[in-house]
Amino acid sequence: MARLVWFAFLSVTLTLSRGDDRPNFVFFVADDLGIGDVGCFGNDTIRTPNIDSIAAKGAKLTQHLAAAPVCTPSRAAFLTGRYPIRYGSHIEESTMNYGTVLIMALDHYCFLFFNISGMTGRDLPMAFVQLAIPSGLPRSEVTFPQLAKDHGYQTALLGKWHLGLNCAWAGDHCHHPSEFGFDYFYGLPLSNGLDCDPEAKQTIGQYIARLLYRHLRLWEISTSIFVVILALKYFKYIQWKTLFLLSTFGWSLVACPYVALTNGRRLNCVMMRDDDIIEMPFNISTITPRMTLEAVRFLQESKTKNEPFLLEVSYWNVHTALVPYKEFRGKSRHGLYGDSVEEMDWSIGVVMATLERLGLTDNTFVYFTSDNGGHIETGEEGGSNGIYKGGKGQGGSEGGIRMPTVVQWPRKIKPGTIVTEATSQMDIFPTVADILKAPLPQDRVMDGRNILPLLGGALVTSPHEFLFHYCGGHLHAVRYMPREGNVTWKAHFVSYNWDHGTTGCFSLRICRCAGQEVTYNDPPLLYDVTSDPTEDRPISVDSDSRYPIVIDVIKKAVEEHVDSLTEVENQFGVSNFIPRPWLQECCNFPFCDCQENVNLSSLRING
Question: Are 345 and 51 in contact (CB under 8 A)?
């Protein structure tokens, strides 16, 4: 009996020892941060010492790519390790007639654009812009936080989610982070846009409402229709029940959009703790310090419980509206944008210092990246994408998808490592799976690859032979990394019609993915992005013998890739993207107004 007790004790001890030795994970995800905004990637005017320190103590990835150029599909691909087009997180080309509502997810604006000019409304790079919509990351998708949770990890998401919330009614939370592997959520179910700026004199929604209801005279038209309905009742063509139903339905059609447009800050700028609304509308300026405080608490609790953890800190920085905490305002050389970058770097420093204080640094895999490139169309409030052309919203342009990424794991990654090979944010899923010794899902195509051998120096070439670059639902470019040699080719099948002298689409505030706003390249443009990362010197179609060989290989790869796609529900279809009042979250009903009281003094914010 004593021997059985001893063996049981030994078994438990060994299990705990293995648990203690399991690596932890910390993921930092910035919002709209350009590769030219970070010190270790060439910026010498914005201070990012803590991000730079991760690079110095670990690895800098100079060709790390997002799978999409805007928030929602990019973040979905990061979590799932799969191209967004595989599960409908893209939008197909469609033609909108006069008077049809075109939902334009310009993350920067976060507003509904009504097509009143009769122009063709072809697809854009899309992201969710309303809280009260049924779209989101499909429940059929598996994420790497789920993988970690299944292996005994405590998981938490602090900050921006932006992958949906409800399906059938407010509170069902079918797209909530808890459904995708996060034990704890503290942050924004949607995002922050200009409508969330309390200092804005007029929000975008209010502007659109004024445009519609004044110039289209919707109130006058609806009142006239109501008078006609009353007349029908007076002459006994309809009954009171019909009058009531028609009036209620008609006024709802007019009033609900007006309420949604003019109250965007209250309805969409929401903060949650797990399933509860804790702030509505949120105070942007305090979000980063509050997230930082939550991160410190989570790390301390995990250490106390002796549990392995996976933490994602998903910043609003530097998505407009730009409202940094008061201690950081006016501290940078680049206005509110620079202040917001430096605020985020401070937060990363606090988290990293906490890991060090708790003795967790050596056994923690730390990863920092951005969801997409800087939004250059916003001018001084937008980021820098360094030497690379294009920016946010441009899936085929390096400035839209080449991300400032650094990784640290002292046990596996040598300090000062530089990885120049092409890698993808989709690679994080299989990399985490490899670290956990967990098998990848076998019932779906996985597009990411394990990059741990590349980070650790065991391999020197990319695990990818091809990477496909989408804008919305359109394949704009393809990267080809031959298994021999050190050349990375990139073929552009579609190019953007930039405003003259720029690499942005300022007239639209973001570049479209199709239609008259792009150029279809036939033959495709081909670049060697290893020696020509700025893509200034296209390979000659006529005189360079390599051109037909490379393009032929790429086209065959595209055919195989397209054959691997299956038809799925489009999460950005108009029917899925129109707000439903019954999906709207609200605290302190019917006022939808609540605030969280937090003491930030323990953080010792010095700016």
Answer: yes
Residues 27-51 have pLDDT tens digits of 999 999 999 999 999 999 999 999 9
Q: Rounded to whole angstroms, how far apart are CA atoms 63 and 99?
A: 43
Position of tokens 């008077």? Answer: 99
Instruction: Evaluate whether 127 touches 105 at the Cβ level (below 8 Å).
Output: yes
DSSP letters, 345-405, are HHHHHHHHHHHHHTT-GGGEEEEEEESS---GGGGGGS---TTS---TT-TTSHHHHEEEE
Q: CA-based angle 37:82:158, to the nearest 5?
A: 55
Strand partners, 159: 187, 314
Rounded Cα–Cα distance for residues 469 and 74 (Å): 11
How many whole angstroms separate alpha carbon 390 and alpha carbon 375?
A: 9
Q: What residue segments make up the domains of the chain, in order of their start? A: 22-193+269-463+564-599, 206-261
Q: What is the per-residue pLDDT across 342-387, written as a single tens digit (0 to 9) for each? A: 999 999 999 999 999 999 999 999 999 999 999 999 888 889 999 9
Contact (CB, 8 A) for 585 and 277? yes
β-pairing verdict for 271-273 and 402-408: unpaired
Q: Whose CA is closest to 576, among 130, 133, 150?
A: 133
By annotation, the residues acting in catalysis are 71, 162
- CA–CA separation, 68 and 65 (whole Å): 9
Instruction: Please count the residues of the chain.
Output: 607
Is the pLDDT reported for residue 9 higher than 90?
no
The highest-level CATH class for domain 22-193+269-463+564-599 is: alpha beta
Q: What is the mean pLDDT of residues 94-115?
A: 32
pLDDT computed for residue 8 by the predictor: 41
**Spatial distance between the Cα atoms of 513 and 527, rounded to a whole number of angstroms:** 21
